[in-house]
């Protein structure tokens, strides 16, 4: 974050503001953790702030301090719109294009107040007056820690904020195993633990609260896995019928795509999940090494993200999507066999 942006934020926060904080649609641990941490920080500075999420998110994230104050735009529409209409500043976290917030997009586009973006994804759009964008960062939560540090307030990070920030860093780094994890990341995490983040308890709340249905769904997913040794690729399909059979709940498929990368020799893993309500196939891409799933998702599946983790979608059927995906692999033979 450059000095000009820091001064602009300081100027904004030097006066009382009505601030709306927005994560992306289907918020994950980093989105929920970063928005709640910023919410606590702004409230503690005497600002009026509220988090408005585009839609619901998994139960295993709802323990975080301040969760009860998040407005769900889908379920609390009139209240959420009222807060947005009153806003004098909008912070958008963990996304960089307003197309990532679903039905909220048109509402935010109508605002004429300053926007502040904090995000680590590639190819940001230019809707925000103040941008803190850094694709090298592990997570938006680590960026929020930096943001607070830039403002000279790192000593004001409370245990509640530390819990939220730790959660986002932990989940977005794959429990600190992804290559974006740096020594700086561990130093930030160490400071968060010193400030009260309950690291063992956080891990338990996020990863050790499975339902029988989720574990049975995982078994189904692994049974469906297709391994293409020639292209060092593995992919999983899950139909709507299979999701219904195992009483799917939001967040149940979180992390399933990573199982493909646990296979020796596999560097490209994908999961295709049928969503009949939206009429699409939701896709998650993961890779190891230099193969850019961000470029792959952008080129063929209306998606994007990071070099080693991205998302996308398809309007084809589940079977047709999988076959189309397989047909693309030959184009990347050299990269996948390198």
Automatic annotation (TrEMBL):
Coiled-coil blocks: none
Domain DDH: 18-169
Domain DHHA1 stretches: 251-316
Source organism, top-level taxon: Bacteria
GO molecular function, one term: nucleic acid binding
One of the Pfam families matching this protein, by short name: DHH
UniProt protein name: Bifunctional oligoribonuclease/PAP phosphatase NrnA
Taxon lineage: Bacteria, Pseudomonadati, Bacteroidota, Flavobacteriia, Flavobacteriales
């Amino acid at each position: 974050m450059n000095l000009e942006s820091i001064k602009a934020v300081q100027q904004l926060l030097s006066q009382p503001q009505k601030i709306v904080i927005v994560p992306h649609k289907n918020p994950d641990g980093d989105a929920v953790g970063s928005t709640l941490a910023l919410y606590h920080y702004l409230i503690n500075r005497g600002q009026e702030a509220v988090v408005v999420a585009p839609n619901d998110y998994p139960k295993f994230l709802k323990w975080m301090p301040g969760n009860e104050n998040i407005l769900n735009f889908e379920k609390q529409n009139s209240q959420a719109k009222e807060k947005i209409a009153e806003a004098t500043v909008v912070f958008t976290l963990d996304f960089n294009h307003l197309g990532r917030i679903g039905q909220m997009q048109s509402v935010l586009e109508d605002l004429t107040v300053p926007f502040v973006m904090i995000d680590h994804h590639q190819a940001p759009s230019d809707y925000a007056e103040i941008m803190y964008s850094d694709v090298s960062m592990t997570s938006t939560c680590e960026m929020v820690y930096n943001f607070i540090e830039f403002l000279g307030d790192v000593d004001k990070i409370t245990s509640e904020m530390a819990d939220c920030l730790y959660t986002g860093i932990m989940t977005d780094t794959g429990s600190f195993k992804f290559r974006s994890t740096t020594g700086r990341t561990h130093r930030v995490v160490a400071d968060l633990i010193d400030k009260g983040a309950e690291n063992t308890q956080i891990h338990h709340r996020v990863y050790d609260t499975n339902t029988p249905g989720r574990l049975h769904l995982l078994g189904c997913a692994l049974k469906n896995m297709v391994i293409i040794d020639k292209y060092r690729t593995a992919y999983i399909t899950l139909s709507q019928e299979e999701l219904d059979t195992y009483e799917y709940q939001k967040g149940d498929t979180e992390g399933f795509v990573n199982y493909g990368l646990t296979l020796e020799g596999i560097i490209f893993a994908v999961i295709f999940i049928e969503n009949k309500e939206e009429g699409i196939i939701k896709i998650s891409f993961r890779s190891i090494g230099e193969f850019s799933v961000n470029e792959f998702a952008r080129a063929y599946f209306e998606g994007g993200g990071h070099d080693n983790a991205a998302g996308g979608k398809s309007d084809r059927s589940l079977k047709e999507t999988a076959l189309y995906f397989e047909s693309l692999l030959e184009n990347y033979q050299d990269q996948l066999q390198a």
